[in-house]
Amino acid sequence: MAEAASHVMANRETGSTWVGRSIPRVEDSALLTGRGRFIDDLGVRPGTLQAAMLRSPHAHADIVSIDLSAAKQAPGVVAVLAGEDIKALTSSLVVGVKAPVECWPIAIGRVRYVGEPVAMVVATDRYLAEDAVDLIEVRYEARPAAVDPLAALSPGAPVLHDGFPGNVASDRTFRYGDPEQAFASAAHRISIDVRYPRNSCTPIETYGVVAEYDPGEDAYDVLANFQGPFSIHAVLSRALKVPGNRLRLRTPPDSGGSFGVKQGIFPYIVLIAAAARAAGRPVKWIEDRLEHLTASVSATNRAITLTAAVAEDGRILALDWDQVEDCGAHLRAPEPATLYRMHGNLNGAYDIRHLAVRNRVVVTNKTPTGLNRGFGGPQVYFALERLVQRIAVQLGLDPLDVITRNLVPADAFPYRTASGALLDSGNYQEAMRRGVDEGALAELKARRDAARAQGRLYGIGYTAVVEPSVSNMGYITTVLTPAERRKAGPKNGAQATATVAIDPVGSVTVHVASVPQGQGHRTVLSQVVADVFGLKPAEIRVNTEIDTAKDAWSIASGNYASRFAPAVAGTARLAAERIAERLARIAASQLNTEIEDIAFSGGNVGSKRNPDNKLAFSRVAGLSHWSPAALPDGVGQTIRETVFWSPPELTAPDEEDHINSSLCHGFIFDFCGVEIDRTTLQTRIDRYVTMHDCGTILHPAMVDGQIRGGFAQAVGAALYEEYAYAADGSFLTGTFADYLLPTTAEIPDPVILHMETPSPFTPLGSKGVGEGNCMSTPVCIANAVADALVAKDLELPLMPAKLAQLVRGIEPAPQAGHAPEGIKESNGDRRLRGEGEAIVAAPAQQVWDMLLDPATLQAVIPGCHNVERLSDTHFRADVTIGIGPVKGQYRADVKLSDLDPPHAVTLGGAAEGTLGFGSGEGRITLVPHENGGTTIRYVYEAAIGGKVASIGGRLLDGAARVIIGQFFAALARKAGGGAADQPAPSFLARIRRWFGGRS
Amino acid sequence: MKPAAFDYVRAEHLDEALDVLNREGSDARIIAGGQSLMPMLNMRLAKPRTLIDIMRLPELSRIERKAGTVTVGAGVRQASLLDWPELGQSLRLAAMALPWTGHAQTRSRGTVCGSIAHADPSAELPLVLRALGGEVHLCSARARRRVAAKDFFAGMMATTRADEEMIEAVSFPADQRLCAFREVARRHGDFAIVACAAVATTDGVRLAVGGVADMPTARDFPRLDGSALDDALNAFAYELDARDDVHATARYRRDLVRMIGRDLVREVLQ
Predict the structure, then answer these.
(1) Which terminus, N or C, of chain B has the lesser number of Cβ atoms within 10 Å?
(2) Residues of chain B predicted below pLDDT 70
């Protein structure tokens, strides 16, 4: 092995290695010519069925009944499955904390988030499957929802799972060093409360699964664009009730982005596999965009109170973290990993010896969370780096000085953090110096000063961030107590695998279990292995598909935690070197020289001293196939070598909860200038500088690509993106018209700077670089906005309307006579309120009788037909409600209450249909006139949820108002008058058409 | 996201389209560029029994300037109007607003009349039609009629078009009046949070606002400045009855109407 390694080193010295060069990506010609092979491009076996899901419109509701009969009779339908059917075929998904809760991939008896699968139709095509989904009748009884993580903790909050009392899935405290003493003796105690919002990295390709069940072998075969970690394979086989060797999990050749998100596909693998078993045929499911945004997976939102003990000069002596992590409706594997991924790094880039930590994990009525690029980093750094900015402001210091004074000293590496991480290498001070200098901070400050002199809103923000990579598979067990861990057995490591194989004509194939989604792993591996064998990258063929039935893999396999360059690429080199060492022995024997004299170069294996004494690589490499007897004694085969590598530094958490949560730690120093428009309060990034030290760079263009991609997603998180929920748990951002991704027009070109401090712990000296800007950039932009607006409390995304609340004073009052009645600020409560009145010619008693008459109700409720009278004051009806081209069928339940004849009545109703649900209540008051007429006054309150709220939120209030207006207009017409709250003429016209002669 | 089954009629003659519309009424929808309707079909928000495709009717694909009026047929795509060489001279306000209508990709499919028929309260083209005082040309199997923009838009995605009618064309008065346009959206091409158009009138300025009320709303102001203008704009801002949504608050919308309104009014009155 030493020979090959020294050969690589020699090449590197002469600058002739492939590693370190931005060679063209082998992946690109297929991707750029439409020849990528994504899951939906691949053929399926004849007879494969398609699945579609019925999903919950409610955030929290009991399922009273499900009627599948009409769907089962629909054309093309082969199977329809609801929760109990899935339950009969599978077992609960494992939950990462010790608690008596179950976690099913489909609702069983109760729905806990909007979009939760309720039933599944399997049919001959997707159109027919969706037709049948519309025929499933579900009756729900709504429960109050717990949406906000802190509110979910309060006494009396709706409880999601009995096994999580008070919605708390985990509550652990940690203490490192002597934080009490540090706080007691510090000059200042500075604190910040932050909320990190829900967002996601939204890959362009959604989830896809094709599953098949073989009853003869009781085995599943699944193709899915799953991304790992393959520890989930164990979760899946357990849920499907088969041993691991009877669940074959394969990945397609290409996957269109993941950023962690495609880890969250695994509950759907269980569903589709179970459906294939029930249907007796292969079943395919491709998630659509509405499903993806609503219910695939999300990063966690988190509420953090972070307090620092600070010396007069800005030195941070201790930190007190109080984190409340919102994992959504179910604690799905590997959660609560988002909270613990950063556990060894709660000090950030700083030398802080004393830590107090309280970590609570709560469940709420939102989509369950999972992996997402940055994974825990954005949440932690938003709190920590906002706090550092606050410390600077509060103590009157330059933020850059506060950062510099607290950095881990350059001579302290490897540095053990208070909570147990081992920072491998770095020189943070040098990186900052270079960043300030090469990034031209002085010039940026001059721009700020000039802008401010003109009265413009301009600010500069900074962040210093440690970017962890190569996760310790044991960090998640820090959520368990030491006693629980002892019972469960140790978990740790970061097993990477790579196989290098040589075929009979001596060509080289590499296989890794890295499951890329566009990153270019195949290119980098061809560089790494080409260097070992003295070949060209084009001569190396790399396969990154996974087949758990045939390939080398382990629990850490997959693409996450920025592990490719530090772990997988290095392991491939180790595998190549093992074969190269044997090839060197064969060549030495054939060339009559010693092993130390052998070099791999230019497609040959030859003598260093006598370059003419050489053999073609292919000839040496093929010998093991053609003439094993000709190999020197004891060399062994050179056909295939698989290496499993796990770094010894990644040990399990110790008895004091110290955890080296990641192997590598890159460093990032960012600063930016932003300008905020005084009218629109939109934030424009004027200049963004990002300085990275990710150890040895294998492919500079790909590293810059990772930085640009992470930066773009971080700009989204900072300024645009949020999975928004209403107070009732309705999901409000189900399309890309409401979940706003920044486009090229919104993303500035960052200035990218590098330095390279190799990691001593990885074979190639590389560290991860994939997630850093997702951690550093959102808070850097927020710090700049804080500087520009002199604002303290900022919430992401930095929406102009939210900034307006911070900087704008009292609004000019409406002048008398000009304001419409009843302007109400909704304060995030999305219930629609309104009032109005209508004057009619009929006397009050006649209007009263009309209100209690089902025939009248049928005539005045828009689109109402089939009124069923359950009692004098309780009716059920089918209604068709339409706004423009949008039309939905609803089953409505209408009740009259608080009757005060003939003066007042409350009209309450709830409607449920394929487009969602609505409920409302209106108090109607009748005031008789002296001339015999009546004034009908009404005050109403309504709420709408489900699909229409997710995709049409922008228009929802207006639409609801239109429909309510239609109702009262029709009522007034029926009573012989016109509504004063005049609905538009079209509605009167339409109502006339609808009701014809009846009105 | 697969549409429910529907019949598809590709009209070869306008009469054929109108006959089908007459027969099917509200169960039929005209499809032109499909940039609003197709997503609604795919999400099953709309489940029309019949789609009538009018894009193969050459008589609908014309842009004509006659006697001070620019008439745009129902088959004219937004990109075609934007590319029309006379646009800058004849319809300056449309030239300013069209680049804000969706994106190049959606403009290459979406039609001018389709946007007006859809009557999204945030859309630019209905706002331009309203600001300029244009007309909508409706036709049915039985009759043709013209409706002024102010009488056409009736609410959230609602118009006074009868179910058996389709828009044959829209017409804008062509002139050289001073005008101004400004839009605020989260990202360029998004639905407007507030879109404002101002057009000079004989004795002042007309300010039209989209994205706030249920439909584009216009108000004629005399020549005002200073606090009188601020008061008038403040009153107008409140009358639009702004609402909160996931992208902006009602207050923020009113602020923009006041501030952008003032800028545009001054710009046009100068």
Answers:
(1) C
(2) none
